[in-house]
Each structure stands twice: as C-alpha cells, then as structure tokens.
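Example 3.2
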Amino acid sequence: MGLIARQLEAAGIPTTSVSSARDITCAVRPPRAAFVDFPLGHTTGHVGHPYLTRAIIESAFDLLSVTEGEVVRDLGHQWPDGDAWKDTDFLPELNEATGKTEMVDDRVERHATPQYQTKADEAAAVISHGDQECLVCAGIDY
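Structure, written as tokens:
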C-alpha cells in the first residue's frame, strides 16, 4: 500500500493508510500511515468493536492534515483482548544453524519482480496487461 500511496501522492492525490506491521511500513515510506500494534489482518480493530474501528479510521484521516515529510504515527490503541496474541505470533524458534533458540524471520524472500500464488494468477496478469505493465506496476507517468 505504501508504494501505491507514494505514486498517488506524486499525482496530487493525498493518501493515508493503517498498518499493523511497522517495519514493513517504514521500509516502503508511505506519505502518511497510522500504526496500531494489533495482529496482522486486524488493522482496524477487533470484530464487534465499532467504536474502536471508527476511532482508528478517524485518526488515519486526521493524518491528511500532515502536508510535509513522511509520518508513521502510533495511535496507541490496545488490542481489546490484551497482548497474549504476541505470545503465539512471535515465538522464538530453534535456529538449526546456530543451535540456539532465537527469533527467526521466516518471511518469504522479497523480489523486485511480481510474484504470483499460482500459474493461473500469473496467466491472468499477463492477459490483463498484454505486453505492457499496468500504471500501478510501472509507476504512474504524468
């Protein structure tokens, strides 16, 4: 999202986003982002808590008033069920190379070229793009 946001901003369209992955958000340097320390996939809160969802969304929109520089603002909200989710999401693992128990980054390697979950997804992308890249993939040229 941050990469798309930067392209939209370059075209004069203000953007803001909500993230629960601070390291990734900071790496792509979006113009504006609101950070919540929530489990991935729950960036606007816990199901059944509409007031929290609304507060997060309103805080993200408030960031539109920031017109200079890049900002990742920690909204400071607490996950309604506490931080117990971190005990299962961030468990240390045995690093077989060192024989020590430590935090292991097991994310998939990042690539400069598009990656697809299936061959059918790749074929559909080729068909929809023809022999050209889409404006989002290539960067919008104004």
